[in-house]
Model the fold of this input.
Amino acid sequence: MNAFFNMNFLTELLLSTIRMATPILFVALAETYSERAGLVNIGLDGIMSFGALIGFLIGYKTGSPTTGILAGALSGVAINMIYAFCTIRLCAPQIVYGMAINIFAPALASFIYRLSFSDTSTLIQGVSMKAMPIPVLCNIPVLGPLFFNHIPLVYMAYLLVPATAVFFNSTKAGLNFKAVGEFPKAAETLGINVVLQKYIACVICGALAGIGGAYLTICYTSTYSEGIVAGRGFIALSAVIFGRWMPSGVMLACLLFGFCDALQIRLQLLSPSTPYQLLQMIPYLCTLFVLAFFGIRKSGPKANGQPYYREER
Amino acid sequence: MKKTMKTASLIMAAVLTAMSLAACGSASAPTTAAGSSAETSAAETTKAETTKAEETKAADSSKASGYKVAMVLDSSVSDGGWGASCYQAMVNAAKDSGWETVYTDNVATADFTTVMTDYAELGYNLIFAPGNQYTDAVKQVAEEYPDIKFALLNGTVETENITSILPDAKQIGYMAGALAGLMSKTNNIGFIGGMELDTTKAKLECYEKAAQKVNPDIKVSSAYAGSFSDTAKGKEIASSMVSTYDVDVMFGDASAVDTGAREALAGSEGRYDIGQPGDLGSADHKIIICSVVTDNAALLKACMKDVEADTFGGKTIYGDLSNGCLSIGTFSNLVSQDIQTQYKEIVDQIKAGTFIQ
Done:
């Protein structure tokens, strides 16, 4: 037990938490944007896989991690546009098409992977993004290496949280955005172009989810394997509900999940006699518990999940 | 809106007719048969499947024996671990014997019997199921199709048309543990498992025993990733082992997860990994000091010879050091000459059964 109070153990645990929470945070923010505009996108897992592959492929071909990340974002947008067209233009059920993306995108990703790299016995190594310590701040005794010595994308993810909060609560564009998800008819009468806003929301969602996926194959590890997403898209979905559609809540949810996951790995090492399956349940039990007590469905955008018919009376 | 939908559906119908005409006109009958049956089975399943009908003709066309082997895999063929090595084994064995190969991967557990039945219906002579988890499905389909032969890797079933192929998990564990014990300077070694399969448990037990026989002060830490494909998890587990316990040699039984572990080890000095089941290292590799190589191809080739000679079934083919199916991989230059000689002596003892009584 005294291992717990070892400073090194705690710092490693917190570092691990931040690392493991980042991909979920990207995707959860993506889903926040999408749901605030009234579109429930459960195809996040699929978009992540596709973004992971394209990011890995482009990074491998060009040798530049930044190009890979950009490619991941663009590919996420491309896949999400299919969802956008079907749900906004054709007003199809959003859950069904989200699931369709979940089936279609990972299969497409593994198909492209096999076309580009024929079957090999080891995984191909791609590019890797280097950590970028912030000059003065990273020398602070305890907090320095913890918060200020990360890959640039990690900084971007955590800076996006206050940026999103400011956008939604203090800017006119953000308030219009939220109005589209709350009561699109009223927004339309005030001259807000509801359909365009929804498309913009899908673009943002696809880009961020694609970056989240590309983060996994460029920054976190530098290989692509078919199960690399491991259900993180669905965890992000629950993070959005847990965080009550507010960026700060979403960040807390992702950090909590990352913490439980990092803790679970370390607990496995510390007590080898406990069946590992019990310890692996910890993150999910925690999410269930918090959702049961703190997640309130009613606090979401009112017109969430409903198709918008412009001509409806 | 109506007009665009109409033209769109007309175009789709035209494309589909063109595709089906092209498929019917093709001379390769097995390809289309496999393709169309795959379409129907894909329509039944909800999980994504990739089916590829590969006609691997032998280099010498006179060796093409007209036999066909099919593999059913629940993970992916390009996972850099178990799936990839089983696929390579099948392709290599088939190339030498002049067989054709086909595989279906990413098959969900509920669909094992469906896919195997489809291949049996298509007349594939040998169906290869690479893992203990296929046992029930293989038993079920083998009963219904007594003329089709089944090779079950890591299985324990023997019937008229099922042969089990059993690489010796204990010897694999001993080999890895002995090398880890010899190479570790911090007296802490690690093991990553995927799921808690019987073979993984056996490998872990023997890993510990062998390491402690070589070096009584060794401590082993182990963790299970719970998945065979979550590379990121492997990286986390390895880096937490290194930071919490100062582990310097690791061994994994979890395909893609091990690749993640190797990435974490690459970030620090003096951390090594032992690879399996293929020969993953090389002389100048900085991380993989050696591999425990399982020659699944030789085992499969023995099955194929049996099918051709009609002596298949009713036995278990063991793969261990004595028949060459387990072997030491390529040493990296990081392993000194006298550790290499010591290790080779230990492996001979394992082969003779005298290493651990």
Summary: Strands of chain A lie at 132-133, 149-150. Chain A has 13 helices and two strands. Residues 55 and 71 of chain A are 5 Å apart (CA to CA). Residues 7-36 of chain A form the longest helix (30 residues).
